[in-house]
């Protein structure tokens, strides 16, 4: 579900948080506050928004109807924070993304500018669908996955939990990519990928 009419709390003060804040601004959604556990960042500004404190020292999620987004690129860190903080997580979608009404998007997922998600795709919770990524019909994306900029999933691809798909990577139809695997930037995946494997190249092959 996309945030509507509620200010959103942004967890993270790095590059990905900049994208999340910019997405909220483009969608006309107020940023309630930005948090980061790096003490060197507290008090600084993230594209005009002050980083007000550490995530671990706040309890904003206890406020009635408060919503948040974990704006951190690491799939593992998003998973850890989602388990640690009992917040109301909301998805955030850039207004230039095109998403068919039949698509299902999990809580806490960020869909960036120019992304395209075709009919009957299912996107899990706390995912990142980065700038210009394409998800074709009937794809299924597990929780905490990250689809890099301009990456492309052909029809009926299955992406497991925590997968990282590098920028510009392409996955052919009906391929399965196992949980917590990594697909290198620019790779072309034409065969199934097992869990916790890194593949790269054209065609993509496992690497050490």
Describe the structure in your own words.
The strands form 4 sheets. Strands 6-9-12-15-18-21-23-24 form an 8-stranded mixed beta sheet, with helices on one face. The protein has a 6-stranded parallel beta sheet with strand order 7-10-13-16-19-22, with no helix packed on it. A 5-stranded mixed beta sheet has the order 3-4-2-1-5. A hairpin with a 4-residue loop joins strand 23 and strand 24. The longest helix has 12 residues, at 15-26. The mean pLDDT is 94. The protein is built from 2 helices and 24 strands. The chain is mainly beta and 208 residues long. It is globular. Helix content is 11%, strand content 28%. It has 2 domains: 8-84, Rossmann fold (3-Layer(aba) Sandwich); 93-198, 3 Solenoid (UDP N-Acetylglucosamine Acyltransferase, domain 1), CATH 2.160.10.10. It has helices at residues 15-26, 75-84; strands spanning 8-11, 31-35, 45-46, 49-53, 67-70, 92-93, 98-99, 104-105, 110-111, 116-117, 122-123, 128-129, 134-135, 140-141, 146-147, 152-153, 158-159, 164-165, 170-171, 176-177, 182-183, 188-189, 198-200, 205-206.
């Amino acid at each position: 579900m996309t945030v509507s009419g509620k200010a959103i709390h942004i967890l993270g003060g790095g590059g990905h948080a900049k994208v999340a804040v910019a997405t909220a601004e483009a969608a006309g959604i107020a940023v309630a506050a930005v948090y980061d556990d790096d003490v060197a960042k507290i008090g600084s500004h993230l594209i005009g928004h002050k980083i007000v404190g550490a995530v671990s020292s706040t309890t904003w999620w206890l406020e009635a109807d408060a919503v948040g987004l974990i704006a951190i690129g690491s799939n593992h860190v998003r998973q850890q924070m989602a388990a640690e903080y009992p917040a109301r997580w909301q998805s955030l979608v850039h207004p230039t993304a095109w998403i068919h009404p039949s698509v299902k998007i999990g809580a806490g997922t960020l869909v960036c500018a120019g992304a395209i998600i075709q009919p009957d795709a299912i996107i899990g919770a706390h995912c990142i669908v980065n700038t210009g990524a394409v998800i074709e019909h009937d794809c299924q994306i597990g929780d905490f996955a990250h689809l890099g900029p301009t990456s492309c999933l052909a029809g009926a691809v299955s992406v497991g939990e925590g997968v990282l798909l590098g920028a510009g990577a392409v996955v052919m139809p009906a391929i399965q990519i196992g949980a917590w695997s990594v697909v290198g930037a620019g790779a072309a995946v034409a065969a199934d990928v097992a869990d916790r494997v890194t593949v790269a190249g054209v065609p993509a092959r496992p690497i050490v």
